[in-house]
Each structure stands twice: as structure tokens, then as C-alpha cells.
Amino acid sequence: MDRLVLTINGGSSSLKFAVFRAGAPPARMLTGKIERVGGAGATLTLTDPAGGADRRAVEAPDHAACVPVVADVLRRLEGELVAIGHRVVHGGPTYAAPTRITPDVVAELRRLSPLDPEHLPAEVSLIEAFAERHPRVAQVACFDTAFHHGLPRVAALLAIPRRYAERGVRRYGFHGLSYAYVMKELARRHGPAAARGRVVVAHLGNGASLAAVRDGAPIDTSMAFTPAAGVPMSTRAGDLDPGLVAYLARVDGMTAEAFDRMVNKESGLLGVSETSADVRDLLAREATDPRAADALALFCYQVKKWIGAFAAALGGLDTLVFTGGIGENAPVVRARIAAGLGFLGVTVDAARNAASAPVISADGAAATVCVIPTDEEQEIATLVCGIETGGSAR
Fold first, then answer.
1. Residue 73 burial by CB count (10 A; 0-12/13-18/19+): exposed, middle or buried?
2. What is the pLDDT of residue 390?
């Protein structure tokens, strides 16, 4: 009988999951997504490795209600569930590695919930619901902040009174599971020397961030204390003048909660375009809608700026990697970001870029530009299998 590993990735209104056959590497058997959790019209979509998809309506009033849906999917597979790996967005100052989940870990995650009130409470509810249904199955927390845990102090410090740093207020960085997977893929595809070079990874999707990596270790990243920092995203503002908080409180009576909602849910591409948070929609409209053109121009400009800043921090650039939904699938956006980076050795071949080839840089370019699809579920399954077959865990 197959030994199965389940990966769980709970978003604010969705739940992604995948089932793997345990091994080195784990073999994906099925991918699933439950959308519109907590709202009307929730749906389950199942996709097999060949690309066949099945979609149906489900009841999902909250994240815990998704657990019986996932359990029903597991019952159809021939195998024994031996471990569950959870993507946990925030590990705070405590967690720097995948960690077996115990009652003490759950209690600590509850204590850390103020760091990420949008994700951590739902993730804890999923952990507890799976523990109730599968009490003998090991559960492992895989932290999106872990990749950045060892950032140099100069990159982690925020320029606010030191007493807050002592309370854990620092640059944490996110998308760590994606970065870890992409760096392994970079080494596999281009050799260990490439992964040890001066690398900038641009994870561009609904959430977008960049990381600077040297000698295989991160030295900086664009997201900070929360995922709202850095470049503009689909609905997140990215970096802003903190004086806006006081200004909007004075002139609009805006509360802290309303400001938080604005910068996370109403800003970014959606806020600037006033029509859509989706790059595909904006590309289709930019010729006739200057707001869409502005949103795209701002996004590409800010990503370009961060690449330049990180090249300065790295002392040069050997490899630029695009990943994430936009990074993998939007050649026009990649071309606009790369334009003007010739001084860093970045030259994109138009035909390769249009085809989203694995390497899109021109022959002879000083910097290699790659497109590497990310796979956070594969990374979680790999981490879990490593622990369950004798690897270490906190």
C-alpha cells in the first residue's frame, strides 16, 4: 500500500492541497483547490498529473469545514496517510525550520497570530481539524518565513526604536517555500555554481516579492514585517510613506483597521487601475484605458527598481529568475522589467521570452535570465518526507 503525504495551503478564502506518494522525491498523485471558503458557491477542483480536471460544488462555510471534503478525496486513493504538511505563512522569531506539530507548537502559533491575523488563525484551525480527524498522523508546519530567517542583521532591522526589535518586530520576508524550491531547481538545472552565485529571484504573482541570494543564502528580500511591503501587488500597496497613516486619519477619519484593509485588499494593481487586480485583464485594456497602463507601468518599474537595488547589495548580478504566476506566464511583463537592465548584463532574447523558455537571456549575455515554475506543494512534501524518514525537526 502506498504511503501518502498530504500538503495543505490555506489562504484567506481558499484551500489548496495535494497528495503525494512518499519518497525521494515525493511523487504527486493529485492536486486540489477549494475556492470561496466562507462564502456562497464554494467549489472543489481536482487535477490529476495528466491535467484532467474535475470541478464540483461543496459546502465550505469555514476552513475547518474543508477537512471532510479533503478526507473524502483521500478515501478514493489507495494508500495510507502517513503525514500532513501545512504551509504556515508566519513563523515569527521562533521557527527557522519545518517543525513537527505538537500542542505546544499550536499554542505558540496562537501566540504569534497578531503577526498575521489574516492567515495564522485559519491555519491553526486547519491543523486542529486534521488532528481531530487523523489523530495518529504526523503533522508538520512548514514556514514561509523560514527561508529568510538568517537574513543579515542590517537587512532584518527596521529603523524604528530598538525596543520593538526586541519584541520581534523585524523584516521577516515571505514566499520562502517558493524561494527554497526555486533555488534547488536553479542548482539542478544550471549547476551548484549558479545557485552559489549572485542571484535575484522575482516571485511575481497575486502576491509579489523579490529575494537577493548569495552563496545559496538570502541576504535581503522585499517583503518586510508583513506581506504588504515591497513591490505593488494585485491588491497590496507595497512600500508606502508611513506618514499616510496619520494623514488619512486626519482628513478621512480612517482607522488602523480601515488602513490595513485598504493597503491589503484595495490597493496595488486594483487600486491604481480601478478595474482589475489581474495582469491579464490590464494587458488587454492598457491600449484604451490609461489607468490600466499606469498600473502595469508602476508594477514593472518597481520590480525593476528592486532588481537594481538587490544587484547593488549583491555586488553584481549573475542570474535573474522569474517565477510565480506572472513571472512564469507574462512575457510582456518580463520584457518590460528587463528593459534598461543591460548595465547589469541583462539582455532578453525576444523569441525565447515569448515562448517562456527555461532560459530567456540572449546568447553571450553576462547575466543568465531564467523562467523557473515554482511548486510550493512539492517543497512542502519534500520537507515532510525528509522529517518522516529520519530528517531533523525542531
1. middle
2. 53
Q: Which residue, among 347, 353, 349, 351, has the nearest Cα to 365 in the 3D structure?
A: 347
Question: Grid coordinates 530598538 are at which residue?
Answer: 162
| CATH tag for 3-143 (out of 3.40.50.1820, 3.60.15.10, 3.30.420.40, 3.90.220.20) | 3.30.420.40
Residue 102: all three cell numbers together: 505538537
CA dist 169 and 161 (Å) reads 10
Whole-number pLDDT of residue 389: 57
Looking at domain 191-371, its CATH class is alpha beta
Mean pLDDT by 10 residues, the chain (394 residues): 93 89 94 91 92 91 92 91 96 94 96 89 93 96 97 98 94 97 98 98 96 98 96 97 98 97 97 97 98 98 98 98 97 98 98 98 98 97 84 43
Residues assigned a catalytic role: 144
What's the rounded Cα separation, in Å, for the pair 136 and 139?
9
> Is pTM, for the whole model, over 0.85?
yes
Give the integer Cα–Cα distance in Å for 258 and 71: 37
Cis check: omega of the bond before 25, within 30 degrees of 0: yes
Burial class for 319, CB neighbours closer than 10 Å (0-12, 13-18, 19+)? buried
Place of cell 475547518: 64
Query: Could you state, in order of their start, the residue ranges of all structural domains in the chain?
Result: 3-143, 191-371
DSSP 13-32: SEEEEEEEE-SSS-EEEEEE
Q: What is the pLDDT of residue 10?
A: 86
